[in-house]
Amino acid sequence: MARTGSPSGRPPKKRPDPPVEPTPLSWDERLVDGLAARRREVAGVLLILLSLITLLALAGLADLGWLAWWTRLLRQIFGWGAFIVALLIAAAGARLLLGPLARVNLSPSKVLGVGIIIVAVMGISHLAGGYSLRDAFAGRGGGLVGWALSEPLFDFLGFFLGLLVYAALFAWALMLLTGRTWADVARALVALSERLAGWADRLDPDRIDVIGHAELRTPDAAGAVIPADRLQTIIDEPQAIDPARRDPRLPVLDLLERSETLTHARDEIEWKSKRIEDTLFDFGLPAKVVEVLRGPAVTQFGVEPGYVERPGPDGEIKQQKVRVSQIAALQRDLTLALAVSRLRIEAPVPGRSVVGIEVPNGQTSVVRLRGLIESPSFGRLGSSLGVALGRDVAGAAVATDLARLPHLLIAGTTGSGKSVCINAFIACLVFNNAPEQLKLVMIDPKKVELVRFNGLPHLIGNVEVDADRAVGVLRWLTSEMERRYELFESVSARNIGGYNRKFGAAGQAHLRLPYIAVFIDELADLMHTYPGDVERNLCRLAQMARATGIHLVVATQRPSTDVITGLIKANFPARLSFAVASGVDSRVILDTVGAENLMGKGDMLYQAPDAPAPARVQGVYVTDTEIDRVVGHWRAAMPDHAPQPPPWEPLIARYALLDETDSLLESAVELAKKHDNLSVSFLQRRLRLGYPRAARLMEHLHEMGLVDDPQTGGKTRRSFVNEDDDDPIGDYLSDSEEL
């Protein structure tokens, strides 16, 4: 029987429909599709045509007919600015038409500046033409926009304030166009005021000569200001200058605060000058103020002694010069007359034929580190070991080279500025030296002043705050000095500069020795705890460490004879004194009086090694924020830096062992190295000791494993060390630490 259905029982597949042929587009549809694809170009062409027609109609060269309302509207709103609107429409059309080809990089600030100028000029033109509101509706002047920015503004504010508003708008527009800021404007105004002050000084030659100016950058001898990139880095000697080789890791000046400018305060100066002359005249001492040096904190009035008429031996009246000592004796009377807290008289001023009367300023200027580093005085040092001190009574920057001092002794009462001065020294050194060129050692018994420098790559170990460990640091510095002298002898070098030049090649840079700057913030505490060891090591370092590149900066708040002994003072030719309690303390630190009359807060007297008398300086002020920025910069520049164990740890452990055992233990070890057998009586004879002490030394040698147990029936012991062993005590300490 035949099957009538499909084998699988499924319905048969349908055949696909034949493809539908697309309907052809008409000409208008093809035109619309083509215009849609080029809509940007079409819009650009239309805008350009509209702009051309508008310009011709505004110029009266074409009649728009039914589009005349367009030009009337532009005239009525913008006045003559309608031409600019038409040009802007053309620019927009060109931008759409050309696309990427017409792309122009215009910053929004410059576009805004041009717009402000155009709108302001529209208002000024309306006001200058004397147009009214009726004229604005007629399209004259700046139109309604020009009227709105002129008549209502001047009616409300008045003529003078209205002009100030327009001046501010123009200034703002120029700043936007030139990319300047208000800080640049302030600096320009300060420079202009200084030029006007100089012009006024030239017009008035009979005035009192005000020489100084605080916090002011002055040109060098060639007339150019030392730029920031002139900050040199030490290569072979501190005196070497090579700006091209400045390490890129060194900090930039933007980390420091900008300096402040102090005005001359001419009225105050003239009043004080007249007051000084009147007071001296009242005491029968005619004198005249011939010059004034104005600094950040004090003003020095240069007084020229006059003449007095006195009878001579023959009874004839003669003129005699007023003695300098007579003026100096009136210090308290001048303090009372000027109504100041303290006053200092320098009689006479070294190098000038005047008596200097230093009077505190009514307004004190803060001396910033950045202004000193940028100053020509700092640049002329020619050394990366240069440190900034502050500004003198004339406002000039004062800086010195730590390598030429070569050590500095600082004294002053609590809060006078010692720690801030040390912070400024450290900041200057790390600004111009990489960690491979300079190492720092810091001792801070007060435990709070220098610990912020922990983590600085220049620092050897950490800041030592324990007096017991500080003595070990000084001992290590002495041994390091001796080691360096042995290295100098091996290569026939006189100092660290000659030694480093021997290894000037790039492949031998690791053999070069860095400079070491040692900062001790409080010497009195160390002297009271270990007077003998501290004085002995300090004096030895001060006498011999200069050639090895080790320089000391020691500060104390008690400049008494038991702290600053005669031996210490003789080896520190450079001294710096802040405010002290009495003239006795001033004589201890400076060998002269004067420091007791300082005002504090950075006011100091600096005695340079080659200066005949101390110079008064207002110290630099470094904030905690600036220090944190500098330390943070070095931590970021050297993220892989890991503090190494300080090299004086073995020396501290050795002396701790000697304190616990016997100070002659090293001598006993030397005998054990030279002899095969030892006995208690042998130690007695060689070391000249009694039996109990010699027996204890023998037991210590046995505990250290250097000698054998006593032999049976005898008293001699066999030695386990010989002359080839370098340091048995050091080996014993190392083994003890491992255990």
TrEMBL record:
Residues 395-587 form the FtsK domain. It comes from Candidatus Promineifilum breve. Homohexamer. Forms a ring that surrounds DNA. SUPFAM superfamilies: P-loop containing nucleoside triphosphate hydrolases, Winged helix' DNA-binding domain. Belongs to the FtsK/SpoIIIE/SftA family. It holds the Pfam family FtsK_4TM. The chain crosses the membrane at residues 45-71, 77-98, 110-133, 153-177. It comes from the Bacteria. This is DNA translocase FtsK. GO terms for molecular function: ATP binding; DNA binding.
